[in-house]
Write a structure and sequence with these properties.
173 residues
Length: 173
Amino acid sequence: MFAQKSKKPMSVNDLLGTVDAMRDQIAALREDRTQVENAPRPLAEVMGDLDDHLDFLSTASVDAPGLHGLRARGVPVELKASAPITLGLLVAVAREPLRRILEEQLGDLEAARPGMAEADRQARLAELDGQILRAEMAEEGAIRGLEGLGVSIQRRADLNPLVALAADQALAG
């Protein structure tokens, strides 16, 4: 696809077609990259964090009223209440039904947009970065081929500077 790889010189129309095709491919790859970058966490990971948080809420709500103080002689019984304490007590007495409701709701979200494990996400981002770089190199090779034929074409403002500075030999290989 590079102008320098061809056995016969590419025509202006072929080079312009390559530039357009590479720009379309770069845009699509960047959109894919954004989707992967913003991919939600997998349901199992979220549920593990939710379980930890439910444990915390339950424990904190039971500890909050100061039960030790209630046992002291001459101290009036006075329970502190707040929304977090109430939620924690709800978790303490009905954890499994509450967890099941939350898991079902999160499962619906997972079905609509599956989560991605961090290792898979990082691997896919690296793969997309490589594909974007190769497409940018092909685009730059075609642009330089056009310039060699006396045709001036504007480079993308978001072109990777390393690609713009690459030697012609790097674009050819």
